[in-house]
Automatic annotation (TrEMBL):
<comment type="similarity">
    <text>Belongs to the MIP18 family.</text>
</comment>
<dbReference type="InterPro" id="IPR039796">
    <property type="entry name" value="MIP18"/>
</dbReference>
<dbReference type="GO" id="GO:1990229">
    <property type="term" value="C:iron-sulfur cluster assembly complex"/>
</dbReference>
<dbReference type="InterPro" id="IPR034904">
    <property type="entry name" value="FSCA_dom_sf"/>
</dbReference>
<protein>
    <submittedName>
        <fullName>Uncharacterized protein</fullName>
    </submittedName>
</protein>
<keyword id="KW-0159">Chromosome partition</keyword>
<dbReference type="GO" id="GO:0051604">
    <property type="term" value="P:protein maturation"/>
</dbReference>
<dbReference type="GO" id="GO:0007059">
    <property type="term" value="P:chromosome segregation"/>
</dbReference>
<dbReference type="GO" id="GO:0140535">
    <property type="term" value="C:intracellular protein-containing complex"/>
</dbReference>
Length: 182
């Protein structure tokens, strides 16, 4: 018996062209990461700052060209489905705090937690460890918004889920990230 899709016919949007930015060659330059750089980490193919490139290259999960995070049900990226947009990424200046708000394609999406975990894992692997990351569902876009937000932002719960998870969950997360971390 085949599994029934939660959203059998999602709307697919065209990827927006992102502006090119200057590369900072001075690794000692004091420049904070902005929302566009975080979005590029999630969905772009270029990391613009040399200090971030050095952190990524020296990290165990070497960041290859981060094409996209794949939707758990469809062969489209979360960007193509407008689940995450550049406007939904916030940086709290001076606090090393990244907030990503995502919008599931349907209000009753059973994959919302998996999508949030994929975003969190991608940022955990890509940003320096001193960054605080909050992943949230857009207000009013999901039937279990508060429960999912609570699960996604409880650090101990997330780490336990990733360490002790059902192998199917870990496989699903890796499948969604595999275009990025092949």
């Amino acid at each position: 018996m085949a599994l029934e899709l939660i959203n059998a016919n999602p709307v697919v949007y065209e990827k927006k062209e992102r502006p090119n930015r200057q590369v900072t060659t001075d690794k000692n330059a004091a420049e904070a990461i902005d929302h566009q750089e975080v979005f590029d980490i999630l969905f772009g193919c270029i990391v613009h700052r040399m200090d971030i490139i050095q952190v990524l290259i020296s990290s165990p999960a070497l960041l290859r060209c981060p094409d996209y995070i794949k939707d758990p049900e469809h062969p489209y990226s979360l960007e193509e489905l407008n689940v995450v947009t550049e406007d939904s990424v916030e940086i709290c200046d001076g606090l090393n705090h990244v907030i990503v708000t995502f919008t599931p394609t349907v209000e009753h999406c059973s994959m919302a937690t998996v999508i949030g975990l994929c975003i969190r894992v991608k940022l955990m692997r890509s940003l320096p460890p001193y960054y605080k990351v909050d992943i949230r569902i857009a207000p009013g876009s999901h039937a279990s918004e508060s429960d999912v937000n609570k699960r996604l932002n409880d650090k101990e719960r997330v780490l336990a889920a990733l360490e002790n998870a059902d192998p199917d969950l870990l496989d699903k997360i890796e499948e969604c990230l595999s275009p990025t971390f092949a």
